[in-house]
Fold this sequence. Notes:
The complex is a heterodimer of chains A (155) and B (391).
Chain A: H1 7-12, H2 20-35, H3 74-80, H4 85-95, E1 127-128, E2 135-136, H5 139-148
Antiparallel strand pairs in A: 1-2
Chain B: E1 6-10, E2 14-19, E3 25-28, E4 31-33, E5 42-43, E6 57-59, E7 62-63, E8 66-67, H1 70-80, E9 94-99, H2 105-118, E10 123-128, H3 129-140, E11 146-152, E12 157-163, E13 166-167, E14 173-175, H4 179-193, H5 201-211, H6 218-225, E15 236-239, E16 250-252, E17 262-265, H7 268-271, H8 274-277, H9 289-298, H10 305-309, E18 312-315, H11 324-335, E19 344-345, H12 353-361, H13 367-370, E20 372-373, H14 374-380, H15 382-388
Parallel strand pairs in B: 1-9, 9-10, 11-18, 18-19
Antiparallel strand pairs in B: 1-2, 2-3, 4-5, 4-6, 7-8, 10-20, 11-12, 12-13, 12-14, 15-16, 15-17
Helix pairs in contact in B: 3-12, 4-5, 9-11
Amino acid sequence: MAARESGRIKDAYQKRVLDEAARKRRQRKALEALEQDNFHDDPHADLVMSKKVPKFQESLDSRGAGRKKKTKSAEYYKQRFRKTFAQLVEEELNFNRTPPNYASAQAPASRFPDRHFCAVCGFPSNYTCIPCGARYCSTKCLGTHLDTRCLKWTA
Amino acid sequence: MSNVSFILDNGACTAKVGLSTASPKLVPNCIMKAKSERRRPFVGSQIEECRDASGLFYILPFQKGYLINWDIQKTVWDYIFSKEQCSANLSQMPLFITEPHFNFPSIQEAMTEIFFEEYDCQSILKINASGLSCYHYRNKNPTAKCCIIVDSGYSFTHIIPYVNGVKVKDGIRRIDVGGKLLTNHLKEIISYRQLHVMDETYVINQAKEDSCFVSQDFYKDMNTAKNKLEINPIARDYVLPDYTSLRRGFLRQPEAPGEQQTLRLNNERFAIPEILFHPSDVGIHQIGIPEAIVDSLKACSEETWPHLLANIVLTGGNAKFPGFRDRVLKEVRSLAPSQYSVNVVRPEDPITYAWEGGKLLSRDSRLSSMIVTKEEYEEEGQAICYERFDI
Lengths: 155, 391
């Protein structure tokens, strides 16, 4: 007699299952999204700003009015100190190797196990979606998950 | 020398600015663009003049807690030092400016250059915001020899132990969770569960401030939140602002949907601040604040432990979540060695605590030996700043 097994597991073999690398990629994308400043496009991006248009509000330059020295524009400083965050971290790695430094100050991983929450409703979950590895708490939430997020937007 | 100074606590989200004789002003450290006003970007506090703050687009000078976009920062600083905000004659008074921990050398140098050469500062003092908080704390509690400052801001959270007013660099811990991540996560889950709000950072950040709290017993609250509305003390409706009759949203008891647009907030209310205690809930494999406090403690010599544990100070915007202090106290108590007593302080205003520390420091007689003057900078260049400031 064949060993008993749950229908859910039997079905799983026919489904597409994301491998570890794809899951990590998804996780990284989700974390990057949490760092984003904006999720929409600049609302003024389509405007053609003319620099010649007089600004009627009190100008920011009034500060320097009484002085001879000309203040440098914001654009000058943009060009002068142009470095991305990644470049700065790399520089630091090369010049300041001995801890304590930026890298060594990062908090280590916890010694406690991760907690798991349903990706749909946020309550504690006990089950894992077989294709994508997301967590869910009930068949109702599993249904929502399969319909909305599971393997959608996966390249 | 007059003892008036200009204090600029240059936070990644909010700059706390003002003369040491006045009280601090909170200025958003960014430029914002609104859909409703097509021609005009709003710099700093100008956003208060914006009638419709829906769909605000943010341009921030900081990235991951470090100053990256200098053109934006320069524009905001120009605004801060202008008559519109806090007009000050920087060539006649010292300027205190805060920098993040382990600030990158090229950012430090750029900062020094801008203040001496562009703003013509007479003298500057560069210091970590936590250094000012520590000064504030020791000023109010002269018997405290050591303290641990927890600075939970917009970009990240730092734990910094101070022994006799000097930071223990080996003990500094950074958790990459801050207010920005919490707001973005709240946006994400509301957009998935209820209503698309991914473009509404400004509104959802207010919703977070108005409705989130730190749970004292997480799994118990989770069970409570599962109850039906009638017997659920956690569920609330958040009425969203419409910018015609309502400028800021508010929290109210759950009701049947009416004319106003609302969000139903339930476990979101405490699951969001929970990320500060368990970053692994969103997949960041780092320890939370209480564990980090104990980890930081272990990097310090054992004789300082009782002093450090008795003086834990919570600063930064996230310290304003109700229940934050009690939860930190409870968890640190259960993790720390039992023979030492633990005390956690949440100042009345955790956001301006560092600034107020600067105000006290401006009256310190040792100040003149801490600052770098323009003459010294012109004589010795950047080297003098590295020598004198411990960033």
